[in-house]
Amino acid sequence: LEIFVTILNENDNDPQFPQPNLTRFVREDTEVNATVVAREDLSATDADLDIIYYELTTTVQGTDGYFAIKGVNNPEIYLQKALDYDKFQSTRLLLYARDRPVGSPDLTRTATATITIMITQADTRAPWFLPCVLLHNDTSVCISSPYSGTVNISEMAVEPLILRPGPIYAIDPDSSINEKILYSIVGGNTDEVFSVDADTGNLTMNKIVTSPDSFLLQVMATQANNVRKYSVATVEIKVINKSLYPPHFERGLYNGTVEVGLPPRSFVFQAGDPSTPLSITAADEDFPDV
Known about the structure:
Elements: E1 21-27, E2 35-37, E3 53-58, E4 67-71, E5 74-79, E6 90-98, E7 110-120, E8 128-129, E9 132-135, E10 138-144, E11 147-152, E12 170-171, E13 181-187, E14 194-196, E15 203-205, E16 215-223, E17 226-240, E18 248-249, E19 256-257, E20 269-270, E21 273-277, E22 282-283
Parallel strand pairs: 1-7, 11-17
Antiparallel strand pairs: 2-5, 3-6, 4-5, 6-7, 8-12, 9-10, 13-16, 14-15, 16-17, 18-22, 19-20, 20-21
């Protein structure tokens, strides 16, 4: 008597990931739809030879929607939405591998892999001159004010010029890269009167100014590693007469009179001369015509 015995496979094995914990570094300028983790690094096996069904979730609030898998049977992870280093620098994904479809009434065995994604900053922004103000809280744009300063006519300044609202200074807004900034004057420097230190941004004089005409310099801040990453700021330098004397009031004491009950903005008159408004004036020997 021949007896044929058929062994029926029982679902008694869990799926197995080749690596239950993975870490990947992803640049913030990675193109959308690019692969982040390859399929072969995530494909689970099952000793029962069952078809594996995958599901991807994130555990970090605010990072939903950035990463996805190619399909329910394809665990390859790709970038679904453009990254921004300023929004988040890392996230943690959970990849589930099941030997039955989600919702199946049959016994389902599951494995879980943890994928840590670290976002690395890319060199995406040009230098910022400081101080500056973010445009509508947009971390990609910072608006700076023009710099301004003065020099005395026919006088050579030996120290770096004092400017408002502060010295010429720019930074690389890609803070984790923090590339070195170089400075140069690219416009408005008539007769090469001024120089800027390439490393510090200090503005100095090369020669005296004999004309009262102002200068409107254009100073460029460039990343040392990439001349295409640059910004330009304006620096207005006014030429003035040197001030040797402080201003002074023409009198040490002024006396005036007012009548009771006068409405606001009424004149105060000189004491003893009710027809002449009281005038308080000062003079400066440096500026006799002012």
